Please model this.
Amino acid sequence: MNVEPFFNYLKDEKRYSSFTLTAYKKDLEQFLAYCATINDIRGFEDITPKIVREWVMIKMSEGGTVATVRRKLSTLRTFFRFLMREGKVKEDPTEIVVTPKMGHRLPVFVPDYQMNNMLDSEELQGGFHELRDRLVLLMAYYTGMRRSELVGLKDRDVDFSGKTVVITGKGNKQRLVPLADELIEDMKCYLELRKEVGGEKHGYFFVTDKGKPVYDKFIYRLVQKYLGMYTTLSKKSPHVLRHTFATQLLNNGACIEAIRELLGHADLAATQIYTHNSFENLIKVFNKAHPRA
Model:
């Protein structure tokens, strides 16, 4: 993807300083390097608002200041306006991307490609131990469960026929969340292998290699281990997977009210007043918006 005409335009027509040109070149190189990791991108016309938004959020999650990220997004806006003027693209993918506000940091999340690399890795293939670890990651990613909710999950909370799970959250408030087919298949395989360690007597869903219920530090260390292996995030905790769940739904068109209900939040300052959605609508939102549903 040739960007030289853009910089000639900035230098010769816009008369940008050498300092500004250097900053723009660095920003654009970083963005195009990210685009190169996405298989479906063959040219500028393949770049979508979702890709731009994800890149902006990655920069924020890596510790970039709001001012720096705003400048990077400004670089992309200038670049795509130039491409539209030259007839290289028909639409500007930055047009509907909201500029981060000063004083606010976005939640840390795992990008699509890193999440897929982790979940499909050889380290998570094998026997009970590997399947259990993968299922913990999958469950957090597919349902947005908190660490305490993963620990407290019981066999009776899972309804395979209805493809749902009852999650008991803060204040013992319960919510119903749909289960994707991939997740259900792994859950059934896990339960078969769990019989070998005798972990079904106490009723808790997730167990250690010795068949005892998992605990908070167990889940934290498990998630930290794999996020450390497959991501570049500075923060590596189960809550990152919860943020990833919400971020992916939002990026793929789910309304904020539905996301809040799926997360079990009674109140969020960044959202409108709590809206009751029927469970049928939540299932439609989940199936349409989640990238691996």
Remarks:
- Residues 269-281 have pLDDT under 50 and may be disordered.
- Strands lie at 158-159, 164-168, 174-178.
